[in-house]
């Protein structure tokens, strides 16, 4: 076998092995999307009921809770950025990071300091490489988050917002995550979690045509709100983590699908080249044989004369 | 047909139980509260403990809830809890083992969780 042909054969083998791996990853990601979507759906009733309850207390009582009232001049904001632990998911993590950068710039232009909290190894690596300060980070659960993970993430955020700004607390809480729209569409979005913008919440409930009843609070409106808001933040973070996980799998599936397709194309063009090389080799051998034979014939014919 | 209320018992990651009921008894931070159809709209903070639901078929459903909220309006009652389990789902032996383990480790939170589970089973 000629050297040329051997090189092609080896490359085809390598690409075939890669294709097998990417194909397997694609199928694993596809099956996990469904699981992740189911988890998003399962967490929905709790989130809806909780939002309803928060709206009810916040609109139905004149409780003046620090978590629902906007500070006149907010000076510091916390941003929670949700990325993935693993790569090979196309632009998934970098899109989320870019969205966080934009939000950061916007907040900075409004004169706010930004504390960054990060979920996922990719985001941590990005900030670590640029030697930026990170207030806190968590890794190891992005592809299958549990409620306890959301609680762990929420705890320091809630603590920061309850602290006075002068003592290192924050006035606002933002979250950047990748929203799962459909199998094909995932958007990196940012949202303000706290202080609650009641207009949005109220608008949502009036759109559904609901009239909020006058609740009796047990033990009191303030206590209920005190207990509700941390749960609300946790549930929002949990929902964001679940959507991000679903988006991550969808992004990985798409990236791996195009990798598999590209590997297929590469194999096709490489085998064409290998075939041409083989054919060239055969042609050369034949012409060598024919050439040799005719040279021999010429030689014997010459000696006969 | 007696008046009934619709109950949704939801945990953070799933919907645990839903159906029609005539009476729901739960423990709020200021004491036990019983809710029947037509109750005034209510929003309260739940203590960890068993919740008893009398279904309209005459059965009883008991669930262990670990903190959360009760909200009632328009004959719809929602019980929100981070963790909620039906008494039928609770594995008594496992809960007992967890209780012993928690006692030996002096893990107060785990001990309370295990105790609530066992109490819920006892109510049933």
Overall description:
The complex is a heterodimer of chains A (305) and B (124). Chain A contains six helices and six strands, in the order αβαβαβαββαβα. With 305 residues, chain A is α/β, with parallel strands linked by helices. Chain A has two domains: 3-25 and 259-290, Orthogonal Bundle (Helix Hairpins); 31-257, ATP synthase, F1 complex, gamma subunit (Pyruvate Kinase, Chain: A, domain 1). In chain A, β1, α2 and β2 (113-119) form a beta-alpha-beta unit. Chain A is elongated, with a radius of gyration of 31 Å. Chain A starts with a helix and ends with a helix. In chain B, strands 1, 2, 3, 4, 5, 6, 7, 8 and 9 form a nine-stranded mixed beta sheet that branches. In chain B, α1 packs antiparallel against α2. The model of chain B has no long low-confidence stretch (mean pLDDT 84). The chains are: A alpha/beta (305), B alpha+beta (124). At the A-B interface, α1, β6 and α6 of A face β1, β2, β4 and β7 of B. β6 (216-218) of chain A pairs parallel with β4 of chain B. Chain B: This is ATP synthase epsilon chain.
Mean pLDDT of chain B: 84
Instruction: Identify the biggest protein-protein contact and residues per side.
Output: A-B, 29 and 26 residues
User: Under the CATH scheme, which class of the largest domain in chain B?
Assistant: Mainly Beta
Relative strand content of chain A: 5-15%
Subcellular location (chain B): Cell membrane
Keywords (chain B): ATP synthesis, Cell membrane, CF(1), Coiled coil, Hydrogen ion transport, Hydrolase, Ion transport, Membrane, Transport
Domain ATP synthase F1 complex delta/epsilon subunit N-terminal (chain B): 5-83
Family (chain B): Belongs to the ATPase epsilon chain family.
